[in-house]
Amino acid sequence: GGGGSAAGHGGPPAPERVLFPPTFSVSEIKNKQRRHFMFLRWKQQQRKEKLAAKKKRRKEREALGDKAPPKAIPKTIENQRIYDETTVDPNDEEVAFDEATDEFAPYFNRQTVPKILITTSDRPRGRTVRFCEQLSTVIPNSHVYYRRGLALKRIIPQCIARDFTDLIVVNEDRKIPNGMLVCHLPDGPTAHFRMSSVRLRKEIKRKGKEPTEHIPEVILNNFTTRLGHSIGRMFASLFPHDPQFIGRQVATFHNQRDYIFFRFHRYIFKSEKKVGIQELGPRFTLKLRSLQKGTFDSKFGEYEWIHKRREMDTSRRKFHL
């Protein structure tokens, strides 16, 4: 019985390697449980081989040192993007003139101080209420108002009379926040977003302590086209100009493939090279549906841009922001 196995000599048993014939297809197995089990083993083997190949490549690069060839840039939908003719050049005089005369110019010229009213759709439920309260701790100088049957057309003149610079309306469907309307006052524009992946503070793992009242820094990533520039300026105008760095809080609007991901973090410098970050929440994702000139007007409003899926989404590599 000495078959030369490692187990016979008291050593640990050799790990069993799964060898599938070259023409093997998991789908040929008739038994559902067996098929599922074999598929998992096959996936595990694929992962091991991929990891081994990665380690081998890394060792080869380390051995070559400076002579190692440059790393290949992986192809992604993002870097294979179809060029958009409205992409903004930072030195474009026409863009500079537009920015100096658009509706956000008073904010960027420091003539106005942001004052935000956050409200909801009619008679909001608990989750939407909590989301609005947490959003008001992220945006300084914002006030939450619970709406009961009052039309937006009646709210807007009252906001302008009380010197509000922006109105944010959070809509809900089946008790879940699913839309956001951002209206810049007094002259617009108004952006309507679809909202998804909302996570409140208590649902975020390893979250930090409650945010402080310090004015956060604002990061706007990848808003490259003329439309994206307008949306980026709209988000920027919600926050006061001079962040209080002592609070170490950052609000990030990151645009990727026309989805705007919002995150709110606190950071700390552990050393010259290491930075620790904690997510404070809430987090959510926005997708622009329309941009309307002027303040909210559902009947007679003039739209600058509307997302039309069948006409616009002809290519997965075409983006608008």
Automatic annotation (TrEMBL):
InterPro entries the UniProt entry points to: Brix (IPR007109), IMP4/RPF1 (IPR044281)
Predominant location: nucleus
Brix domain residues: 114-297
Amino acid composition bias (Basic and acidic residues), ranges on this chain: 60-69
Any one cellular-component term (Gene Ontology): nucleolus
Gly residues bias locations: 1-11
GO molecular function: rRNA primary transcript binding
Location(s) in or outside the cell: Nucleus, Nucleolus
Protein origin, superkingdom: Eukaryota
SUPFAM superfamilies: Class II aaRS ABD-related
Gene Ontology biological process terms from the UniProt entry: maturation of 5.8S rRNA; maturation of LSU-rRNA
Protein name: Ribosome production factor 1
Organism for this UniProt entry: Chordeiles acutipennis
